[in-house]
Specification:
Layout (H helix, E strand, L loop, with lengths): L3 E6 L9 E2 L2 E2 H18 L3 E4 L12 H15 L3 E8 L9 E5 L5 H17 L3 E6 L3 H4 L5 E8 L3 H7 L2 H21 L2
The structure holds zinc ion.
Length: about 190
Amino acid sequence: MAVKIFIDAGHGGPNPGAVGNGVIEQDVNLSVATQLADDLRAMGYDVREYRTTPDENVISPVAADLRKRAAEANDWGADYFISIHTNSSTNPAANGIETYVYRLNSTSARLARSIMDAATAALGIKDNGVRQANFSVLRNTNMPAVLVELGYLSNPTEALNLNSSAWRAKIAAAIAEGINNFIINSR
Ligand SMILES: [Zn+2]
């Protein structure tokens, strides 16, 4: 049976997420998540996406929406949960990629490291490391789960990249490669 990977494009519907330099987080997340899902399917994985349009599936309030994302992955019996987000900071110089997990020294953290290695190698972006966070989707999922923050919309250079379809395709392919490397190496 194919490994089951649940892809969560962060935000959507009434909750656009961060906005910076004219770029909206939910759009970046959806674009990268959709390409990531396609790339993983092409590798032979069984992929389910929480949303494939700006509004699909998204409910209010946000806390209930986040619980629903985790519950869908749990009910489906996903082997891995990948949430795609884009960052923002009050400091416009802040830049780079980071990936959050519920616990360090875990399968999730090793998966996160593999994603970070592939993404930083492919794009030459700053490696802000694997970090711990008590995020709802990480806490409430039953399988290894990671939340990738692709880059900073508040940084003018990164916002340009995050708005570029070529760059989105490249980071999606790199994340898929990082996931695939991890799964192959853990067999
Ligand atoms: Zn977000």
